Amino acid sequence: MHKTAITQNIEVGGKTLSIETGKLAKQADGSVVIRLGDTVILSTAVTLNEAREGQHFFPLTVDYRERFSAKGAFPGGFFKREGRPTDKETLTSRLIDRTIRPLFPDGFRNEVQVLNFVLSADEEIDGDVIAGVGSSAALALSGSPFDGPTAHVRVGRVNGEMILFPTVSERAESDIDLIVAGKADAIVMVEGEMDEISEDDMVAALEFAHEGIKAIVAGINELVETYVKERGEITPKTYETVAPDADLVEMVYGKIKSDVDAHLRKEYSKETFYGGISDIKKALLTDLFGEGDDAKDEIDGGYSKGDVKEAFKEAESRVMREMILDEGLRLDGRSTTDIREIWTEIDYLPRVHGSAVFTRGETQALVMATLGTGRDVQAVDQLFDQEDKRFYLHYNFPPFSVGEARFLRGPGRREIGHGMLAERALAKMMPGEEEFPYTVRIISDVLESNGSSSMATVCGGSMALMAAGVPLKKPVAGIAMGLIADGDKIAILSDILGTEDHLGDMDFKLCGTEDGITACQMDIKIDGLSMDTMKEALEQAKAGRQHILGEMAKTIGEAREEISPTAPRLIQVVIDQDFIGAIIGPGGKIIKGIQADTGAQINIDERDGKGFVTVAAPNMDAAHAAVDIIRGIVSQPEVGETYMGTVKNLLPFGAIMEIMPGKEAMLHVSEMAHGYVNDPADECQIGDKFEVQLIEVRDGGKLRVSRKPFLPEPTEEEKAAMAKRREERSSRDGGGRGRGGRDGGRGRRRD
After folding, report:
1. Please, are residues 360 and 338 in contact by the beta-carbon 8 Å criterion?
2. pLDDT score for 744
3. How far apart are the first and last CA of the chain?
4. How far apart are CA 97 and CA 139, in angstroms?
5. d(CA 523, CA 99)
6. Cβ proximity of 102 and 122 under 8 Å
7. Helices 87-100/413-427 angle, 10° precision
């Protein structure tokens, strides 16, 4: 029993990535514990020795799981156990799956399971790319027929300097957040978001990433070599591949080439294309096997109908690929750089805050934007990510969009992945909270699909946001690029069809504005992609993206000046945090009163030493009324300023007036009128409103106001009468002695 681990330390990007094996999970075919900082992940790989009978696809399962115990915490909610995978876990699982899947042999049918568990979480070091490295290392030790190793790296750029494995804090300052996976000689997978970077910057980031990938791949190879020396040879898995017989494919190719070629040159639609291919296949089967009672079960060579059908797929693909590579002609008659016809429409739905229909060829998305308040934010509480999301996008792919009928369930991995790509593409162009305090949700329903539905979501989402009046910094568009490669022959395709995605070698989605890239995602089916091919694809995508933006601008090119009339009205007021308590009031009395009086909803957030008060109301009048009250509470009254006051209470020596929300002042009887006031009730009643002037702010913040400046000046006769009455009171009362003087109780000074 081995109690010590074999450890390989890899220096990369100024950090130490440690991979150990041989100590934990030894019954797995391959297992490693990988560390970066205090983040520790267990990665395992198991490959079954035989394929299940009747298996017609490669059953690869990749899972990544985070547990709150990794940071010494409990899961939230009633059940103190992790439940279904979070979106972050799903996206990370896809990230790894998309990297390793194309590196297994064609026709491999043995089940493979790759699992990753975060055991310890350094909140500054995310586990996603580390799990990608761990998965590759576990496969390399497992004996599985995996054409690796591969490595994942994250690239950031802070103040113009590229960084490998940036921390969470550095990512917040970075204008690039790019995950790249590859082998020593090629890039395999790319995904990320950026702040409108150029194509040259993108290439530089990929080249920088690849240097880190090479170092990690070399380290994994050294780990495997050390393991073999110390623990013995790794036993390769036995397997058989399921692939059409080469001779059968050649025979079928010879029989169908002319028919398929002729069919491909007809006017294209998805329905007629697949219908015609189906007719050609039926004719081939009839020719080879006959029909009716004379039909054969096998043909010469012992091939069944199932064998011929599999050979037909490969032969059909070969004809299509040859036409593209040799003639530059695609299935729908376009050249390699042409974009399908685009038509768009906004305001399709009357009560939705913003809506757009984006149609490109036979792909169509109906996209809706909804504006909400701070109460609608999406709270995210995960190991490496705690935030309140003010912008989020949900992508739906109903079965009717491809003419199918199946149960509607929750979003799958594909829908979550496509939605996140579109969200990242648009998020960089969303206005800041101080400029636009709304929470924004986008829903994209794909109504028709024949390639690039996620990119239609980006385009439709951009238009729906502008139609809703969201001050998007710039419009955003997306395009899916494809690749057909055969040896030295390469064709890069713009705006790929679903069939081109299926039969091709790459799906490279790029999103951005007229000035730069905001998000990308690349999946490939071949061993890797050279940097030269990557550069060519980026430049071709730029031209396509700019064309699409031009088509979108024909319908809407910038945000409307006003938000939708059906959307709530929001105003945000930034205050000193010391005033938050004054707005809330004891037991919430003040804030509840404002909401009751105006019909507005008020939400207060405290951050960076400030209070952010967001007022939401059904109309702007109500919003402004609430804001005026709030500004009154936080404003400081100034001596000499005029205020509209309301009498709140009467006292023997004056009246208490509210001159601003939450601020009261004393109107002494001596300041109620120019002459003598015997009883304050003779001058005003509770609820009366009139203008007063602030004349004094005493120690402790007590306020005194006067009404005199707004009353008519007395005539000479009135002044003489008032003077006479003062003399009479003075002689009668002995100069004011014995009744409290000028300021005590009902003092003597009345004029």
Report:
1. no
2. 43
3. 103
4. 12
5. 8
6. no
7. 100
- Looking at the fold, whether 421 and 278 belong to one and the same domain comes out as no
Closest to 460 in 3D by CA, of 409, 407, 393 = 393
Of 390, 549, 569, 342, nearest in space to 466 by CA? 549
Q: For the domain that residue 624 is a member of, what is the CATH number?
A: 3.30.1370.10
Q: Which residues pair with 363 in a beta bridge?
A: 360
Long-range contacts of 250-259 (CB under 8 A, 24+ apart): 251/311, 252/284, 252/308, 252/311, 252/312, 252/315, 253/315, 253/318, 253/319, 255/284, 255/287, 256/280, 256/284, 256/312, 256/315, 256/316, 256/319, 257/315, 257/319, 259/283
> Which residue, of 553, 587, 615, is where some domain finishes?
553
Quickly tell me which residue has 């059908």 as its tokens.
Answer: 309
* Residue 342 identity: I
739 within domain boundaries: no
The answer on pLDDT for 460 being more than 60 is: yes
Assess whether 42 and 61 both reside in one domain: yes
Only one residue has tokens 């004011």, namely 736
Burial 461-482 (b: 16+ CB within 10 A, else e): bbbbbbbbbbbbebbbbbbbbb
615 and 657 inside one domain: no
Q: What is the 3-state secondary structure (H, E, C) of 675-704?
A: CCCCCHHHCCCCCCEEEEEEEEECCCCCEE
Any idea what the CATH number is for the domain that residue 376 is in? 3.30.230.70
* Cα dist from 175 to 247, 392, 597, 685, whole Å: 53, 20, 45, 63
CB distance 616 to 594 below 8 Å = no
User: Which distant-in-sequence residues (6+ apart) come within 8 Å of 237 by Cβ?
Assistant: 29, 47, 49, 110, 142, 143, 144, 145
Say if residue 305 is in the same domain as residue 254.
yes
Tell me how long the chain is.
751
Burial 539-568 (b: 16+ CB within 10 A, else e): ebbbebbebbbebbeebbeebeeebbeebb
Tell the burial category of 18 from Cβ atoms under 10 Å away from its Cβ (0-12, 13-18, 19+).
middle
CATH at residue 257: 1.10.10
pLDDT of 618 above 70: yes
Spatial CA neighbour of 68 closest among 119, 125, 126:
119
Six-digit token pair at 477? 């568009």
Supply the range of the domain harboring residue 256. Answer: 246-327
Binding residues: 501, 507
The one-letter amino acid code at 613 reads V
224 and 276 inside one domain: no
Residues 66 and 40: beta-carbon distance below 8 Å: no
Token output for 464: 């729906």
Domain total of the chain: 5
CA distances from 416 to 90, 160, 532, 717 (A): 8, 32, 31, 87
Say yes or no to pLDDT of 518 above 80. Answer: yes
What percent of the chain clears pLDDT 70, i.e. is strictly above it? 95
Beta strands in 265-422 (DSSP E): 342-346, 354-360, 363-372, 378-381, 386-389, 391-396
Q: What is the mean pLDDT of residues 697-709?
A: 88
Q: Which residues are annotated as a binding site for Mg(2+)?
A: 501, 507
Give the mean pLDDT of 697-715: 87
Question: Could you tell me whether strands 391-396 and 439-448 are parallel, antiparallel, or unpaired per DSSP bridges?
Answer: parallel
Rounded mean pLDDT of the chain?
Answer: 91
Domain identity same for 390 and 508: yes
Phi, psi at 66, each rounded to 5°: -110, 140
Burial of 331 (0-12, 13-18, 19+ CB in 10 A): buried
DSSP 241: B
